[in-house]
Amino acid sequence: MTAATRWMIAGAAVLGLVASASAQEVATGVFKNADGKDVGTVRIEHISSATLFLIKVHDLSPGQHGLHIHSVGQCTAPTFDSAGPHWNPLGKKHGKESPDGPHLGDLPNLVVGADGKAEAQFNLEGITLRGEGNILDGDGASIVIHAGQDDYKTDPSGNSGARIACAVIGLDQRQE
Questions:
Q1: Cis bond leading into 99, ω under 30°?
Q2: What's the sign of the alpha-carbon dihedral 132, 133, 134, 140?
Q3: Is 20 a residue whose pLDDT tops 60?
Q4: What is the predicted pLDDT for the residue at 96?
Q5: Annotated catalytic, 68?
Q6: Annotated active-site residue in 6, 103, 130, 174
Q7: Parallel, antiparallel, or unpaired for β 38-47 and 50-57?
Q8: Spans of all domains in the chain
Q9: What does the pLDDT average to over 79-102?
Q10: pLDDT at 36
Q11: Is 9 exposed, middle or buried (0-12, 13-18, 19+ CB in 10 A)?
Q12: Residue 103 in this model has a pLDDT that exceeds 70
């Protein structure tokens, strides 16, 4: 083996280590309300076995709002029915309090303050952005904010009411 070949192999190994250290998947989306106005953002980071959700919203009514991953990456206003049902690849019932639940798309309620703003951060295990158990399958995914609080048990959506904001989730293009 020549010295040049050894350097190429060592260089490739170093590049591989750098790539694997930063091989975190990131998806983002912008929440739009029924009028098409931007009302917040979502950032999803998949690192190892956990998926971190970072949500920031504004200009929403105060109180608790149901929050769910929906199975289709479309957000057609004003009703956002185009987002489809909750993402539920395991065929469970809705809600963490249901004996037959929850959907993988069931997320914690979003608590909006009197100023119309909210920030939420939570981890979910067992889901990925791509590959096995992924939310970004052939028709994509979205996250929907509902008008009311999710009761965490009533199927199919926790009695959380109308869909008031929606964000299509897409991979961060910088990693492609």
A1: no
A2: positive
A3: no
A4: 81
A5: yes
A6: 103
A7: antiparallel
A8: 24-175
A9: 83
A10: 95
A11: exposed
A12: yes
- Asked whether the predicted pLDDT for residue 7 surpasses 70, the reply is no
Tell me if residue 43 is catalytic: no
**Residue 95, CA atoms < 13 Å, CB-side half-sphere:** 15
Whether residue 174 lies in the annotated active site:
no
What integer is the mean pLDDT of 94-118?
Answer: 85
163 tagged catalytic:
yes
Q: Is the pLDDT of residue 23 over 60?
A: no
Catalytic hit among 81, 146, 150, 174: 146
CATH number for the segment(s) 24-175? 2.60.40.200
Q: Please give the Cα distance from 139 to 28 (Å, whole number).
A: 16
- CA triple 149-79-94, angle to 5 deg: 40
The reply to whether 58 belongs to the active site is no
Q: Of the listed 46, 65, 70, 150, which one is catalytic?
A: 70
pLDDT of residue 132: 67
Active-site annotation holds for 65: no
**Concatenated DSSP letters of the chain:** --HHHHHHHHHHHHHHHHHHHT--EEEEEEEEETTS-EEEEEEEEEETTEEEEEEEE-S--SEEE-EEEESSS---TTT-GGG-SB--TT-PPS-TTSTT---TTB-PPEEE-TTS-EEEEEEEES-BSSSTTBSS-TT-EEEEEESS---SSSTTTTT--SEEEEEEEEE-GGG-
> Is the per-residue pLDDT at 112 higher than 80?
yes
